[in-house]
Amino acid sequence: MKNILYFVVAVIGVLLAVPSILVLIHTEPEAVSEKPASMQKASTAAISPTGKQEKPITFPIKVLRVETGKVESIPLEQYVAGVVAGEMPAEFEVEALKAQALAARTYITLRIAKKDFSDVPKQGHVTDTIKHQVYLDDKQRRARWGSTYDWKNERIVRAVQETAGQILTYENQPINATFFSTSNGYTENAEDYWGSKIPYLRSVKVPWDTASPRYETTVTIPIEQVEKRLKTKLAIPTGGGPSSWQKVLSRTVGQRVKEIKIGDKTYTGRSVRELLDLNSSHFTLSIEKKNVVVHTLGYGHGVGMSQWGANGMAKEGKKAEEIVAYFYKGVQIQNAEKWLK
């Protein structure tokens, strides 16, 4: 009888212990400080849209390093890694980093295909600044990232490896893969900012960008500086009544200022943005004492891929191919090799 009793007690003990054992088995360790949860092992090569494994392209990109004044010859994929590191936060989702790699590789491929490097001295293809694409070499990345270098660089390398050799094309030609930091909730039609219609650069909604620290900004500029930069006089009433010193005349499809009258002159939103050095051409103006208060939404020109939008899409589970297809309408993914000659 005692043996039966001991057996029953043992069985009950095992049953009570099973849930605890299962919890221990399925409980994951806490994430390392600053390291995103989506850290996975990198693959070593890209897979093309046709399913064929791609080999890295070693075509040399001649980069004018502005700080030293020297031109360095950098293999294509190494250059793309440096651009992704310089242009997008390494903390972003890997699929967003992959979308950035596609855009960066497309940008330089288009320049090589056109063979027009007249804006780069010393026979370079491109500079390492925002004039073209920001490029950071390994030493610069180590200095910028410090103790977080290893995992950040691993993410960048993975994004480049998994898109190796791939670019974005429209009607079998490399596209002008423009990108920017943060939208105002929409991207722009190309013609509304640059004046020329481009079929794949169309306005789309970007609801994810409210997460960006640069989504909203307010700056104050002394009235005399605004008048000097815009070369106009602001007709500001002294009695506190309604003012006619500025009026928005029209807006773009992307909700930014298209035309605005300030003082006795009419400007494009883009020109005001550039003359006053604003974050965006989506802005409102008001007067406080002797200052013009400028409130902006977004950061950048607004045409092409929003980087914060790309990250928001990636957080929702979208792949790089879906992200670029959303921001660049009607594009395909092809191998860059035939244009790099």
UniProtKB/TrEMBL annotation:
Residue ranges of domain Sporulation stage II protein D amidase enhancer LytB N-terminal in the record: 68-170
One Pfam family cited in the UniProt record for this chain: SpoIID
Annotated GO CC locations: outer membrane-bounded periplasmic space
One GO-annotated biological process of the protein: sporulation resulting in formation of a cellular spore
Domain of life: Bacteria
InterPro entries: Bact_Sporulation_Assoc (IPR051922), SpoIID/LytB (IPR013486), SpoIID/LytB_N (IPR013693), Spore_II_D_firmicutes (IPR014225)
Stated name of the protein: Amidase enhancer
Organism: Aneurinibacillus soli
